[in-house]
């Protein structure tokens, strides 16, 4: 077996990227369940999301820093499946764009998917006024994106009191520049391979328009499926990774 054949026989490693305001803790139970299935799964805390990070250091982190961080975590030549949630779709899709076939596939749970030359805030909210207000609030807060208040989680019907407290107590301000910086892509996201997980087909991002190599999975519920449906989330990731592995 030559080195390339040996490399292709290696099962994909799963990297789990958290959404805004969160660290690796949001994916820890999922990663443990995946490891119990024999998968090499690693949960990630993106730069600046460590709770002890000083505000000025947090505010200095850029979107490109998160993309570089994840690229550095991908061993050269080793196949990887990226799992993203919400904000981290902006990161995962740019990593896949940069690394090409080394990223065998991506799984996006209600992710923001980047459009070249647009920021996450450019894709935020119902209209231009909402986007302008979100941008102004981030700048006014010293380039920090404030976490949702505990009361906002009461609207998440799929979460129980324990899950709401779990999130509210662990949320940390997010590096604001990462959601104001514009994404950079050589190819549109729809040209990548992946799975997009959403509560309804009416909630698909425009960036997926015309995608040929994407699978759409419907998982009813709110914005934190790893807390609401932990078994289904683990099964989806594990089964998709196994399917990708069988094609290597």
Residue-averaged pLDDT, rounded? 93
Label the structural class.
alpha/beta
User: Spatial order of the strands in the main sheet?
Assistant: 2-1-3-4-7-8
Main sheet: strands, sense, barrel: 6 strands, parallel
Order of helices and strands: HEHEHHEHEHEHEHEEHH
In CATH, what is the homologous superfamily?
A: Alpha/Beta hydrolase fold, catalytic domain
What features would you describe in this structure?
- With 248 residues, the protein is an alpha/beta fold.
- The protein has a single domain, classed as 3-Layer(aba) Sandwich (Rossmann fold).
- Helix content is 37%, strand content 14%.
- The protein contains ten helices and eight strands.
- The chain has helices spanning 3-8, 28-36, 55-60, 63-73, 88-99, 128-140, 161-170, 177-180, 225-228, 230-246, and strands at 13-16, 41-43, 80-85, 103-109, 144-145, 174-175, 194-198, 214-218.
- Strands 2-1-3-4-7-8 form a six-stranded parallel beta sheet, with helices on both faces. It has a two-stranded antiparallel ribbon with strand order 5-6.
- Helix 5 (88-99) links the parallel strand 3 and strand 4 (103-109).
- Helix 2 (28-36) crosses helix 10.
- The protein is globular.
- The model is unreliable at 1-7 (pLDDT under 50).
- Keywords: Hydrolase.
- Residues 14-234 form the AB hydrolase-1 domain.
- This is Alpha/beta hydrolase.
- One of its GO terms (molecular function) is hydrolase activity.
- InterPro entries: AB_hydrolase_1, AB_hydrolase_fold, Sec-Metab_Biosynth_Hydrolase.
